[in-house]
């Protein structure tokens, strides 16, 4: 396989894809030469490595710069920035005059009516997209397909993107549910840190899925954008006559004698000539209306065809987003449960603090009485040897009664159940 640098997107004899992988690795290594980060080229380089896939499933590696791609696909420079791996842009699908710009996760490509120009990368989704598209095109080469080439390429990009996001959601579910269950049963710093990390991953994945969903919803709501994406029809119209023009020519020249629109008509001529010219003019108008109706009906059918395609994957991505929302709700429920448990523990601590405070107050009263009688002063009570013992017994009984009075009061006020 050869690398084309002399002219843009060559259309010579197709090559086999069996020896393609080794050349792709060499091309990727050559593109990454001199860069500190694998898979990223320096900004000073004018050309990048691209993969061209034609309608027959043939693959070629090309070294192309932005100017050539812009001229060939009639794209502005801002659209090519969406495909630049040095920039991080959300998922986007743009319909242009001659191409569809697709930036879905790692799949970044330009789809035309005849070929797919895919950014060369060793990412898993890119390799899978390339191999699967070639396989489908080569398998259905001799079979009729209802979808045009650009829709088949777009469908595969949507399919792989939805599958990749759904796989990531499933992996997150497998990881997050056991951690949340463990946190609900054992609240500690390690489990809280794990949940915090997983919640950050969940929010980032939700934003990515939400952007893909919003992009599909925006396309389905705008008939003009969907009509712009039907590249095969626009190409056929640009190469030949439109249906309205063909019908007008057929109806106008259907008779044995053709009347020229520029031929002068004598005002004194018979009325047959004027009637004939009027009938010819009315036939042109009616055929033009009929052709426009056919064209609009075909356009409506094409838009409906694309809308059904987008709607199918919109349902898939919406289901993936609903699973992420379910995960978020499960995390919120776990957080509420943890807050309830922490609140319950705090209530128990407050109850214990009330009991301890009441006991401390009673003990302080007992210690005060004992301290008073421990002073060195003259009193008649000291004349009796058992007098001090009676004082201690009476004071202790009073303190116990006071403590139980506090407990009954707390129970009456329903501060805590006893």
UniProtKB/TrEMBL annotation:
Source organism per UniProt: Herrania umbratica
Superkingdom to which the source organism belongs: Eukaryota
Name of the protein this chain belongs to: Magnesium transporter
GO CC, one annotated term: membrane
Keyword annotations from UniProtKB, A to Z: Coiled coil, Ion transport, Magnesium, Membrane, Transmembrane, Transmembrane helix, Transport
Signal peptide: none
Coiled-coil ranges from the UniProt annotation: 195-222
Gene3D superfamilies (UniProt xref): 2.40.128.330, Magnesium transport protein CorA, transmembrane region
């Amino acid at each position: 396989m050869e690398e084309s640098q002399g002219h843009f997107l060559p259309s010579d004899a197709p090559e086999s894809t069996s020896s393609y992988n080794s050349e792709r690795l060499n091309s990727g290594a050559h593109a990454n030469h001199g860069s500190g980060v694998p898979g990223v080229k320096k900004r000073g380089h004018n050309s990048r490595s691209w993969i061209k896939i034609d309608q027959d499933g043939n693959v070629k590696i090309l070294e192309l710069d932005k100017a050539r791609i812009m001229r060939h696909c009639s794209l502005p420079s801002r659209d090519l920035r969406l495909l630049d791996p040095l920039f991080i842009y959300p998922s986007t699908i743009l319909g242009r005059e001659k191409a569809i710009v697709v930036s879905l996760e790692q799949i970044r490509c330009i789809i035309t009516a005849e070929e797919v120009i895919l950014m060369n990368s060793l990412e898993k989704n890119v390799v899978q997209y390339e191999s699967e598209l070639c396989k489908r095109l080569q398998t259905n080469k001799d079979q009729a397909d209802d979808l045009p080439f650009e829709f088949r390429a777009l469908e595969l990009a949507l399919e792989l993107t939805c599958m990749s996001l759904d796989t990531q959601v499933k992996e997150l579910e497998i990881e997050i549910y056991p951690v949340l269950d463990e946190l609900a049963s054992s609240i500690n710093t390690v489990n809280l840190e794990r949940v915090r990390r997983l919640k950050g991953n969940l929010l980032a994945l939700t934003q990515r899925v939400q952007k893909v969903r919003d992009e599909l919803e925006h396309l389905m709501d705008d008939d003009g954008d969907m009509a712009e994406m039907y590249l095969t029809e626009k190409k056929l119209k640009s190469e030949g006559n439109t249906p309205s023009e063909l019908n007008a020519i057929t109806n106008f020249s259907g008779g044995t004698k053709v009347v020229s629109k520029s031929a002068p008509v004598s005002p004194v001529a018979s009325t047959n000539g004027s009637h004939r010219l009027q009938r010819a003019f009315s036939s042109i108008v009616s055929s033009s209306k009929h052709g426009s109706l056919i064209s609009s009906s075909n356009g409506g059918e094409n838009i409906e065809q694309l809308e059904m395609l987008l709607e199918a994957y919109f349902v898939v991505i919406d289901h993936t987003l609903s699973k992420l929302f379910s995960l978020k709700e499960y995390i919120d429920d776990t957080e509420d449960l943890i807050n309830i448990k922490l609140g319950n523990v705090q209530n128990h601590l407050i109850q214990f603090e009330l009991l301890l405070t009441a006991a401390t107050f009673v003990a302080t009263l007992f210690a005060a009485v004992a301290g008073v009688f421990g002073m060195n002063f003259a009193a008649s009570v000291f004349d009796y040897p058992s007098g001090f013992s009676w004082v201690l017994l009476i004071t202790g009984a009073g303190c116990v009664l006071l403590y139980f009075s506090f407990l009954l009061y707390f129970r009456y006020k329903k501060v805590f159940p006893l």
